[in-house]
Amino acid sequence: MGVYGLVALLVKLDDMGFYLVQYAQSITGLMSGILTKTGDLLIASLPKIIRFLEFVGTLAMLLVGGGMYVHNIALIHDGLHFMPIMLANLFAGLIVGFVILFILHFAKKQNKT
Prior knowledge:
Number of strands: 0
Transmembrane segments: 20-37, 49-70, 82-107
Number of domains: 1
Helix content: over 70%
Distance between the termini: 52 Å
Radius of gyration: 23 Å
Shape: elongated
Largest sheet: none
Keywords: Membrane, Transmembrane, Transmembrane helix
């Protein structure tokens, strides 16, 4: 299935839920209730899944970005050697991210004046 298949599944998750709810209205009995509940669950779960992926993706980007600095700049590597490597990568990613954010904020302020 791979990553692209998983993304396609996520994109269509709410569509599948809407289809199940709509189909459940055309039938009767126990199956109608099961399909309605399943469809509602799919529809309701998508925003939660997206928020979770947003958090995990941000964390991964900070770890990877910080890791590039930790592993390629000896001064940073030596300065953070006392930390577990994953924590050092996260710390470096956060620091670099905040520095870039500060620079962009300051540059934006300068352009307004």
